[in-house]
Description:
The complex is a heterodimer of chains A (119) and B (112).
Chain A: E1 3-6, E2 10-12, E3 18-25, E4 33-39, E5 45-52, E6 57-60, E7 69-73, E8 78-83, E9 92-99, E10 108-109, E11 113-117
Chain B: E1 9-12, E2 18-23, E3 34-39, E4 46-49, E5 63-68, E6 71-76, E7 85-93, E8 100-103, E9 107-111
Parallel strand pairs in B: 1-9
Antiparallel strand pairs in B: 2-6, 3-4, 3-7, 5-6, 7-8, 7-9
Amino acid sequence: EVQLVLSGAEVKKPGESLKISCKGSGYRFTSYWIGWVRQMPGKGLEWMGIIYPGDSDTRYSPSFQGQVTISADKSISTAYLQWSSLKASDTAMYYCVRHVRVAEPPDYWGQGTLVTVSS
Amino acid sequence: QSVLTQPPSVSAAPGQKVTISCSGSSSNIGNNYVSWYQHLPGTAPKLLIYENDKRPSGIPDRFSGSKSGTSATLGITGLQTGDEADYYCGAWDTSLSAGHVLFGGGTKLAVL
C-alpha cells in the first residue's frame, strides 16, 4: 500500500525557519516524483513543485520559485519542504503528493500537515 | 496562480446523478490529461479519475470522467450520503515559464 506520511503540525513565528518532511513507503521511492501542494485556510489547492528522488531533479511552480526549497534523501525515502524565513501568509495545510510522471497531476496524497505562522 | 474553473457547489438527492464541470484552456486541459480528486475533511484527497477517464482500482464505476476540448466533467451516479465531499480537478499547465499543475477551485457536493 502506497503511503505518504508527513511530519506533525508546526507553530512558528514570522522570520523563523522550518523544514517539514514526507516519508514514502509501499513503492520504489526513487522511481516516482514527490511534490508539495499548499491549501491556505478556506482556499483551493496550489501546486508548489516536485522532486525526483532518484537524481534530485527539482522543478518549481513559478509562484513558489525562490520562496521554498524542495529536497529529498533517498536513503530514508523522505522528501522535504523548507522555508528560510516564514511569513504569516505561509499559514496553510501542506500536502505531499506522488506523481507517476512529471507532466501529469499526482496520484497519491499524504494526509497533510498544518503550518501556523503567528507572532 | 490561475485556477481551473469549477462550480462552487452542486447538490442532488440520494440515488440521483450529478455532474461537475472543470473549464480550462489550451495550455492545460486542452493538451494535457485531467485528474479528479475527492477530498473529505481531515483526510488526504483521493484520486478518482486519471488520464481524463480512467478509474484507479477500487474506485466504483459510479464515478466517471470525460474531456472535450478545454473542459472536463466528473460524473457521479447513484449518489450516496458518503459522497458528500469537495471535488477537485487538476491538469498540467504550460502557460507560464515553467510547467506546473493547476487545480480547480473545488466543488462542494451536497447529497440532500
